[in-house]
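Throughout this chapter, every protein is written as a compact record of paired, labelled lines. An example of such a record is reproduced below:
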Amino acid sequence: MPHGAHPDRPLLTRWLRQDVGLLVGAGGTSLVGALLVWSATHQAAGTAYLARHLLNTAVGMALAVGVTRLGHHGLRLVAPWIYGVSLLGLLAVLTPLGLTVNGSRSWIPVAAGFTVQPSEFAKVGLVLVLAFVLAERWERRVAPTGRDVALAWVLAAVPVALIMLQPDLGSAVVLGALAFVVIAVAGAPRRWVAGVALAAAALVVAALTTPLLSEYQRDRLVAFADPSADPEGIGYQTRQVRLAIGSGGWGGQGFMEGRQTQGGFIPYQLNDFIFSVAGEELGFVGAAGLLVLLSFLVIRVFVVAGRSDDAFGRFVGIGVGTWLVFQVFQNVGMNLGLLPVTGLPLPFVSYGGSSMFASWLAIGVVNAAYAAGQRHRPA
């Protein structure tokens, strides 16, 4: 060993190349989610859901570490394959392997009650393949051609179409939003951006006015406009969520002390409506603190994207950041009664293995971009 060398320096150097803020933000948010899931379920199931949520978090963290160690260039090489595997999952869910829940065929049963939701992993696949396709021209300082933009939109349209066949409007809109932002930032001509925006608006209108959505999902939209339309179904659910959040006041009713939460009045409170637990039991201050934590995480993702040394890392960060922003906005909005209920989970907080794994995989790919940038900076 050379004189003055320190045996721990390579390990220390690797740790310094990780975005600690990104990892701490995601880990802290997951732990807050574990407490909220525990509060929502301990009356009926003790610590069972808490243990599963913590296990999901641990597996998700391991996936993020593995993706980070694969590295920036390794991710770039496997991006098309990850996208292809995600499409196979979306196809499989439409076969007899798929399981229908609440009018949407979105899950594949695996074993011991565990299910996989391919649409969650499709978000990771789409982010990577769009960055892969659009990065080369950006790095050569050449604007994308119409063919490049068309290819990118075809790559986005395929998973969106497969998800709409389930149907799952919420996940389809998330994929469309992240694709729109990444392609626009990559320098797509304005006529393409405007045309796609109009096409997306037409698709949403078609989804709301044709049998494209299931009856259950259309009922959700009707209940958003008029909660009294289904007073014992979706309307009841949305009223209970608003009541829980409104009753929290400034300081909340206390952890594990919420009347609606502990009374079991809110269906799907451990996943779709986990934010209502924070609103009722932790109050405005606690719910706002959770949003601050999520905002810090999203901002950190965009900071990493902005500091990335190459286009692939930049587009990956922009795609992941857009995905998280849109999903947090949608989930909190539907809890507050400001948006229709779409079933999108709150990233890192809601109970669910697929959502947790996909969210941590997203952190891993962004962290890989950060680590790559650190390797190219002088010590």
Summary: Confidence is low (pLDDT under 50) at residues 1-9, 11-15. The radius of gyration is 21 Å. Strands lie at 99-101, 104-111, 114-116.
